[in-house]
Fold these 2 entries.
Entry 1:
Amino acid sequence: MKIQEILARLINGNTRFVADLLEGKLQDSKRRESLLSGQNPFAIILNCSDSRVVPEFIFDTGLGELFTVRVAGNIANSSTIASIEYAVVNMESKLIVVMGHENCGAVSSAIDGGDNGTNLNHLLAHITPAISACKKDATIDDIVKKNAELTVNDLKNKSTILKEALDNGSIKIIPAYYNLGTGKVDFYKIN
Ligand SMILES: [Zn+2]
């Protein structure tokens, strides 16, 4: 599948989700059986752990269609980058979507700042650059979008595997924004 076709498939699935017209295909025993020998998801999604942001529903996909990496604030750290590298090397996933979402709790914690303990401090430190890159009057959702963009850059800059795949045109990485109320995904920076 070409990158443009993958994107179209995600957009079409999301349109069905928004309209309450989920097809819910490829989620049964027959599909499970067909996947026993392996997986070949068509897209990779890096998104937040937030329970309201579930890529398989949002894009109306079935088993084996999306390789999802979820971490609060959809950040690029060693573990999430390694997971994405695994998919790029071993499967034919050509499109990586970094999806932030409306009212992200991780982003608002990063804005609040303070000492949140070793583990959360590590995670929030990945979001701080997005806050610095935005103007003082930026809304949380401006920062969510900036964070997704900077995560796209991190994936490029912190991974030789992804950088090479980007340079030879075999993959594309794009940011996206999920609207909690409408269920719509905005691909706001497609070029
Ligand atoms: Zn979140």
Entry 2:
Amino acid sequence: MKWQLLSGCSKEAEGLDIILSCDGASSVGQVGHEVSVKLTKDVEGARMCCITAVGAGSNVHVDIARKSRRLIMINGCPLQCASKIVREG
Ligand code: SF4
């Protein structure tokens, strides 16, 4: 795997299309993570951000989600953990 260096999303993600993937440990969760990485690499103005930080109540990350141009949630399965975190955040 070739790593793409990204600064912390708390510094640079505001005003972009923000991708929040559930990052589940199951295969479907890992597919979602890979899609997030690919979109971050290939799509200008889009980047993944830390869904765990949103879930943990990090004000910086919650603000980024609120100020994003668009918010894109990727869920690995019907439990929709990423969407629930955003809805309840
Ligand atoms: S939506 Fe939730 S349960 Fe389903 S793969 Fe993602 S983290 Fe796991």
